[in-house]
Amino acid sequence: MIIFDGVTKRYPGGYTALEEVSFRVAPGELVVLSGHTGAGKSTLLKLIPAIERPTSGTVQVNGQNVSKLSRRAIPYLRRNIGLVLQETRLLFDRSVYENILLPLIINGHPPREAAKRVGAALDLVGLSRREKEFPAGLSGGEQQRLAIARAFVNRPSILIADEPTAYLDSAYASEIAEIFRSFNNAGVTVLVATHDISLFRHYSPRRIMLDHGHLMEQ
Fold first, then answer.
1. What pTM does this model have?
2. Please, are residues 208 and 38 in contact by the beta-carbon 8 Å criterion?
3. How far apart (Å, rounded) are the C-alpha atoms in residues 109 and 115?
4. Which of 110, 118, 151, 167 meets the CB 3.0–4.6 Å disulfide criterion with 82?
């Protein structure tokens, strides 16, 4: 489902975030990406939905060479990818329900179908009773749940999360990890970058470790 083949990413000024990284992720895998701060985890994840482009090498997603996709083709690629970033990027002037609904409106889903999907997403993350509230009224853990629901509402085949538990206490972090595990149990391919791999130790995930942009362990 995801193939990195000799991927290098350099930024202006000469900084190399990734160096000759190669690995494959099969459909339905749960993969935990670990490494120190600055190891290249965020850059690696952003290459999958073409937020970043590799300097050299190829990134393939579902048989498509993402490295060469045109700008017009990228939105279609992203319809099959749910993305949870370190910053939730929630819309604080819209309700919980409206935050989750927005991706469906953009993709042209009929109103009834969209409403069903939003309801299902809210149930999955335990926010079904908070749909009329605004993000500012939610705790940090609840805001992260909302971001996850928004990423999943399009029912993507791939779910990517970049340090989704970084600013949460251990109880909330464990709950978030369990949500990702439930998605994986439903057949979704999940990649999670985290500094705390113990969160997923009970689920026996595959682990990929980065060290200063180099792939060290699979």
1. 0.87
2. no
3. 9
4. 151
